[in-house]
Predict the structure.
Amino acid sequence: MSPAVITLLFLLFAIVMFVWEKIPLALTSMIVCVGLVVTGVLEPKAAFNGFVNTNVILFVGMFVVGGALFETGMANKIGGIVTKFAKSERQLIVAIMVIVGVMSGFLSNTGTAAVLIPVVVGIAAKSGFARSRLLMPLVFAAAMGGNLSLIGAPGNMIAQSALQEIGLKFGFFEYGLVGLPILVCGIIYFALFGYKLLPKAKPAADGDSTFDEQADYSSVPKWKQVLSLVILIATILAMIFEDFIGIPLYVSSSIGAILLVLTRVMTEKQAYKSIDMQTIFLFGGTLALASALESTGAGAMIADAVIGLLGQNASPYILLLAVLLLSAVLTNFMSNTATTALLVPISLSIATGMGADPRAVLMATVIGGSMAYATPIGMPANTMVLSIGGYKFRDYAKAGVPLMVVALVVSMILLPIFFPFYP
């Protein structure tokens, strides 16, 4: 059996297991990584190279920097601000989406949702509004906000890593050129029409009571809360002005994490706890698959098949729509990070085969991969609110599919302007 065929079989295995989720995503990723070594497709050094990638260091640093905001209760305090400005249900939905969307642009979208779910549940109890009307906009905003910056979501960094291999990269806010308009249009959609599609459901009787109780941060010194925010802002500013100050992103994130532990804002144990190892292993393991797809020519085979279906001289708009739809559909049935990890090497091969700009094709892949609005399994935050909001599977589709249409329309307008396939 040729290395290309073996690689395609491992790709099929990864897709099935990512969708089925009978074993953890990270474990699937590692099975693929080790399997490629055992079958001789990759040398051990090439297979495990993803784990010493500078973007893994960036992930670790930002998990700690963002974790401090959650650990000290500062994120909770920021979320509580919504009660001061929102009086009606629609105002509350808009306020929640704005705050969650912005926070998700620079922090873990799953972490942001986890911290603010109990805040929103508390607001619902005080205001008398149904929590089911507020929690779904919260998790959708978390998904959309991930595309505001380079560090907003793991998928963004996966695409960045692939680009760096060929000497290209995305700027810190380049995702935001499309991500911010999608977030703004998504908020407007819910404010004008989408709120009518939100269910008035009762929470499941066995709902997660953890989210019904807000954590008590009264014992956390105020200076820790303030310093966690200051270090986060300073770290983000250092990343924005990376070229000016000459310090790489991963070094800035490491400095921020070190300062938090040195100043005792976080203990060493809390810092370790804040690191999401599933993302690290998923990222490192799927980079091995990406490497195999490229080195064996399996990625080119898939790209040739796609190009064959679309036609060699297919319109760039048809190609853009195909990439967006493929990513958007897949991401609703498996992790958005896993979707991006699987599609990035294939998208690169398609770009090469059609002579398109790799940055444009990867941007479309990442944007489509963030549209996890139509099912409760598209991203962890969606699953978190399933029982606490009393939702059924169809509730996500009812409110989420029109939001996907809005995001696809915005993408089809803006991507050709900012990231044309054939510049």
The mean pLDDT is 86. The radius of gyration is 21 Å. The CA atoms of residues 73 and 247 lie 29 Å apart. Residues 393-418 form the longest helix (26 residues).
